[in-house]
């Protein structure tokens, strides 16, 4: 018996290239595409027969909530091949509303998500049996909340009834509507930012008056930022000055204590200066005070053979001066008596 060959693409094992775009049919098999149950898919399938999981959506402003949903879809079964359908701008604007990103931008965003193996462009809003058979889809992955659109209470109702629906969990706190709400709420901030980055008022659909107002606000904000920068620098400068002042005061106190100690050691009650002054005063008093005269004159030696001769004038001149006026008068009288004797 001739073996049947499968030409279904295998899941990507590397992430060096983006996901492929789907062709007319991306799984051309000579053998019939046998229907799988959820239990069979969870037990595992042959390598050449991956479980083909389909997830669709708008994927505008592609964010982490989208990526987490696709991650769950990719990991529903051990061997899976994830196909992602992206609706066109025409269908989205008709049934849901205006998008921020164009369809080509959204296609490329999905191609570069690591969990996606294949992207279907211009995906249908409601899945038909023909579309499911064309792409050999085994299961459809989406959150379990009923999705009412295009006149239907739940566009996945017939998929659930056929046993082909596998639920995923939504990521709370993030959605395309939330992101758009933030932009609308802070419209002035983003308009001013883009004006500052070089966009024109016409590109932003901003009136002449609002343009001038935004530009003035940008200038005010720049001035505030400069003032804030100057304040921060001033605070830093003041802090450094205070730190230096503290160091200087501490050093000044240390030097002052050292100076006062040296001063007291030199000029204190028992200081070195007092001792030096006393020693020098003693030396000066000793140097300026006169030497004391002898208390009594030695006795004259009278010889019997010779009569005493009167003292000469030179001898009188060499004698020490009298210690008192009385002595001086006594000496003068003695000198006069001697003269009279000679006469």
From TrEMBL:
Q: Which reactions are catalysed by this chain?
A: phosphocholine + CTP + H(+) = CDP-choline + diphosphate
Q: Where is this region: Disordered?
A: 286-343
Q: In which pathway does it act?
A: Phospholipid metabolism; phosphatidylcholine biosynthesis; phosphatidylcholine from phosphocholine: step 1/2; Lipid metabolism
Q: Which CDD domains match?
A: CCT
A matching Pfam family: CTP_transf_like
Q: Name one GO molecular function term.
A: phosphatidylcholine binding
- Which regions are flagged for Low complexity bias? 289-306, 325-336
Tell me the ranges covered by the Cytidyltransferase-like domain, including all copies.
54-182
Q: Please indicate if the UniProt record lists Nuclease as a keyword.
A: no
**Which purpose does this protein serve, as stated in its record?**
Catalyzes the key rate-limiting step in the CDP-choline pathway for phosphatidylcholine biosynthesis.
Q: Which PANTHER family match?
A: CHOLINE-PHOSPHATE CYTIDYLYLTRANSFERASE B, CYTIDYLYLTRANSFERASE
What NCBIfam families has UniProt attached to this entry?
cyt_tran_rel (TIGR00125)
Name of the molecule in the record:
choline-phosphate cytidylyltransferase
Q: What is the lineage of its organism?
A: Eukaryota, Metazoa, Chordata, Craniata, Vertebrata
């Amino acid at each position: 018996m001739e073996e049947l060959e499968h030409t279904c693409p295998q899941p990507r094992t590397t992430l060096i290239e983006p996901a492929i775009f789907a062709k007319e049919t991306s799984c051309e098999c000579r053998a019939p595409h046998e229907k799988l149950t959820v239990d069979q898919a969870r037990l595992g399938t042959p390598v050449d027969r991956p479980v083909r999981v389909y997830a669709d959506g708008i994927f505008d402003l592609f964010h982490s909530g989208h990526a987490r949903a696709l991650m769950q879809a990719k990991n529903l079964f051990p061997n899976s091949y994830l196909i992602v359908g992206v609706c066109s701008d025409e269908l989205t604007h008709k049934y849901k509303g205006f998008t921020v990103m164009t369809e080509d931008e959204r296609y490329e965003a999905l191609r570069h998500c690591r969990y996606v193996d294949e992207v279907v462009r211009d995906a249908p809003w409601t899945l038909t049996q023909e579309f499911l058979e064309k792409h050999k889809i085994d299961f459809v992955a989406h959150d379990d909340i009923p999705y009412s659109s295009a006149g239907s209470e739940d566009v996945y109702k017939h998929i659930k009834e056929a046993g082909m629906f596998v639920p995923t969990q939504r990521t709370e706190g993030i959605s395309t509507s939330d992101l758009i709400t933030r932009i609308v709420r802070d419209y002035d901030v983003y308009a001013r930012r883009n004006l500052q980055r070089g966009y024109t008022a016409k590109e932003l659909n901003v009136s002449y008056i609002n343009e001038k107002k935004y530009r003035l606000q940008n200038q005010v904000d720049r001035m505030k930022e400069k003032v804030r920068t100057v304040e921060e620098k001033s605070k830093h400068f003041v802090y450094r000055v205070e730190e230096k002042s503290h160091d200087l005061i501490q050093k000044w106190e240390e030097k002052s204590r050292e100076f006062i100690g040296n001063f007291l050691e030199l000029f204190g009650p028992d200081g070195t200066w007092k001792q030096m002054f006393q020693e020098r005063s003693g030396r000066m008093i000793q140097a300026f005070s006169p030497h004391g005269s002898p208390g009594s004159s030695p006795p004259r030696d009278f010889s019997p053979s010779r009569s005493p001769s009167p003292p000469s004038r030179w001898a009188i001149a060499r004698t020490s001066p009298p210690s008192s006026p009385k002595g001086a008068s006594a000496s003068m009288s003695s000198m006069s008596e001697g003269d009279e004797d000679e006469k």
